[in-house]
Amino acid sequence: MKRKSLQGAACPVARTLDLIGDWWSLLIIRDALDGIRRFSDFQKNLDIAKNMLSARLKALVEQGIMQTVPAADGGAYKEYVLTERGKALQTVIVALSQWGGEFMYEAGETGSVMVDAQNRQPIRKLELVAADGRVLAPEDVATRLAVEH
After folding, report:
1. Residue percentage of the chain with pLDDT more than 90
2. Could you give the CA distance from residue 60 to residue 127 in angstroms, rounded to a whole number?
3. What tens digit of pLDDT does each residue of 69-93 get?
4. How far apart are CA 16 and CA 12, in angstroms?
5. Mean pLDDT score, 57-64
6. 3-state class of 40 per DSSP?
7. Spatial distance between the Cα atoms of 21 and 88, rounded to a whole number of angstroms
8. Which domains does the chain have, with CATH numbers?
């Protein structure tokens, strides 16, 4: 079954999910944020079929989320690095990680946590903050059509 494209949707969540909504793409982006650059390292870390990884990486490059660059060691292989557009997804990845850490584990179950690379302490929980500094609860947020971008 072919899925419906959300590319022309008015909702930015729908458009974003159309672009990077499958779990493999988000896990590839997560790994790239952790410094993985080579096809073989993505494949080994994710335990993903090579054809599936190849298709996802190709799509991420076509969508401007990643780009290929010559291998850092001067080898014949290409490496995959995040573009600025891709790096901007870090907040999404952190939000998913924090939500999962809070709601997807049983008491006493071990999971990973994202930390500040400098001091190795967990990142403070992300919050939605209004322009005037107020922390927003779900009921404090509404959606409206924006003027042209």
Report:
1. 75
2. 28
3. 999 888 888 999 999 999 999 999 9
4. 6
5. 96
6. helix
7. 15
8. 12-87 (1.10.10.10)
Contact (Cβ atoms closer than 8 angstroms) between residue 103 and residue 54? no
Q: Any bridge partners for residue 135, and if so which? A: 129
Six-digit token string for 79: 């490496």
Nearest 5°: the CA angle 43, 30, 119 is 125
Q: How many helices (H) and strands (E) does the chain have?
A: 6, 2
Q: What is the pLDDT of residues 10-41, one digit of tens each?
A: 888 888 888 887 899 999 999 999 999 999 99
Residue 148: predicted pLDDT: 67
74: left (phi over 0), alpha (psi -120 to 50) or beta: left
